[in-house]
Amino acid sequence: MNESVSDVFAALVEQFHLGQTAEEAGWLIGEGLFTDQVEGTALRSLKAPGTAYNDDVLGRDPQPATMDGYVDTRDDNGGVHLNSGIPNHAFYLLAVQLGGYAWERAGRIWYDAITGSHVHTDTDFAGFAAATASAAESRYGKESEELKAVTAAWTEVGVLE
Amino acid sequence: MRIAVRRTGGFAGLTMRWAVDVTQPELGDIWMPLIESCPWEDVPDLANQPDRYMYSISAGERNATLPEREVTGPWRDLVDRTRDAARHDREAAAPLDQPGEEQAEVLAPERLATEPSRPITGRGNRLFPRRPEESDDVGPPQPS
Predict the structure, then answer these.
(1) Domain range holding B47?
(2) Confidence of residue A113 (pLDDT cuts 50, 70, 90)
(3) CB A33 within 8 A of CB A22
(4) What span, in angstroms and rounded, lies between the C-alpha atoms of A53 and A60?
(5) Keyword Lipid biosynthesis: yes or no (chain A) (predicted)?
(6) How many CB atoms lie within 10 A of CB A123?
(7) Dihedral-angle region of residue A27 (phi above 0 means left; psi in -120 to 50 means alpha; beta otherwise)
(8) pLDDT tens figures, A41-56
């Protein structure tokens, strides 16, 4: 979750800076970091985890987009940069579902979640999903489009059933 | 004997691999003392350190997985020697052979001279380009 939140707010900062809507944004992390000798566009993609690079030396971007691809490993300190693809993609789905500038509603919900009382150092994906649902409900209401979209996003990536 | 290092993690989350196949007399003279000085059976189980590296090291049948801050002393020597040897092999083989699957592992260090868990600054390399504002060019000659 730590790595995912980092990516989400990095993407939001970039989109704010460039004045991009969720539809216009590239949703890439580290775009342009590689030289042209590497087959890849970026380190990670929130829009399509697992597609940022496919290189003979680096291998293929190993990120899953849904819980079906969750990686249980000691590599990468427990796959923190691998499995972050799942909550990353949930955020992307929420932002695109709501449309417009991602920082205005989707980002606000994520920010409310991490600054609220439901997220702790040991919060897992399901706990974070619940925190974002609670944040959406508090800010936008029980019947809101925002709460429905949050629930739908986490369901699509397989964190909520 | 095959000696291999796989490094995962770092803030970029990129996986790098280095491997060498070592034969006698080099194996006995240089590598075995180093391999045997590593505490393979005494690897601490430390809390995760997200954004730092995790190393998987193997030498023949032996293997160990350890976090970056434990890669010190003989472990550090073994990792560095493996990486340097892999790089050397790659340079020796380059004019003759097209890089294949196996050699691609060995090709890695040439393409990643900068450690990606550290700030990307300085001269740049083949993986990460030089940042223009950090040019170390001295600039145009100054009028004397």
Answers:
(1) 2-126
(2) very high
(3) no
(4) 6
(5) no
(6) 17
(7) left
(8) 999 999 999 999 999 8
Task: Please answer yes or no on whether A3 and B50 come within 8 Å at the CB atom.
Answer: yes
Looking at the structure of chain B, the number of domains it has is 1
Pairing between strand B2-9 and A59-60? unpaired
| A143 part of contact set with chain B, CB < 8 Å | no
Report how far residue A42's alpha carbon sits from residue A33's, in angstroms, rounded to the nearest whole number.
7
pLDDT value at residue B114:
43
**Interface mutation target, options A76, A80, A83, A122, chain B, most CBs of B under 10 Å:** A76
Nearest to B50 among A2, A58, A62 (CB): A2
Residue pair A102/A13 in contact by the 8 Å Cβ criterion: no
Mutate to test the interface with B, among A38, A63, A75 (most CBs of B within 10 A): A75
In this complex, the residue of A33, A74, A81 whose CB is nearest that of residue B65 is A74
Task: Assign domain A2-156 to a CATH class.
Answer: mainly alpha
What residue type is B79 in one-letter code? V
Spell out the domain ranges in chain A.
2-156
Q: In chain A, where do the E strands start and end?
A: 28-29, 44-45, 54-55, 59-60
